[in-house]
Design brief:
The chain is an alpha+beta fold. It has five helices and six strands; from the N terminus they run H-E-E-E-H-E-H-H-E-E-H.
């Protein structure tokens, strides 16, 4: 088979294009998504990008005011006070997705938390943690950690390391004061 100069040039260009596209695909794949790529809105209506917590450990907890696990608010507040100076953020994420146990407005939720549990850790506005309208963070967390790690009820917890990677999850029945959870938090504190 005789290949002329223009055919050789075309083959070289195609080869270089394939290499270039392959390198770009590899570079894009190497930039992994972290929790810092997601944002919430605070319960007061202000932007709350998770990137504002860069360098800190973050415990993200979907909460509800009228749940059998609502008493965990006290333990979350205790955990927050014990570890915040060492770099822990507790982030409450109100959701009405399980048993309609968070029916209030953002103002009502905030007042409930302050009056009943003296909560001063950050809270987001009410969001969906499951279903078609799931918040992007929760959809990503399920993809990242698997279907068994998705919230099945209120007070499900995700632990984010200071570099923004998800490192663990804890079901609703895992108390914020449990040794399993506190050891995991201590292991990722900056």
């Amino acid at each position: 088979m005789i290949v002329n100069y223009s055919q050789k040039l075309l083959m070289i260009l195609v080869f270089l294009l394939v290499i270039f596209l392959g390198l770009n695909t590899m570079a894009a794949a190497s930039k992994s998504i972290t929790a810092y790529d997601f944002s919430f809105t605070s319960i007061d209506g202000n932007p709350l990008p998770l990137s504002s917590f860069t360098g800190k450990a973050v415990l993200v907890v979907n909460t509800a005011s009228y749940c059998g696990f609502t008493s965990q608010y006290s333990q979350l507040q205790t955990l927050w006070h014990a570890y915040r100076d060492r770099g822990l953020i507790v982030l409450g994420v109100p959701s009405n997705d399980f048993g309609a146990q968070e029916p209030g407005t953002n103002n009502e939720i905030k007042a409930f938390c302050e009056v009943n549990f003296d909560i001063d850790f950050p809270l987001t506005e009410k969001v969906h943690v499951k279903g078609e309208s799931v918040h992007p963070f929760y959809a990503w967390a399920e993809r990242k950690l698997g279907v068994f790690a998705k919230p099945r009820w209120n007070f499900h917890k995700y632990l984010i390391a200071p570099d923004g990677h998800l490192v663990n999850w804890f079901s609703s029945v895992t108390s914020p004061s449990s040794s399993r959870l506190t050891k995991a938090v201590e292991a990722v504190l900056p």
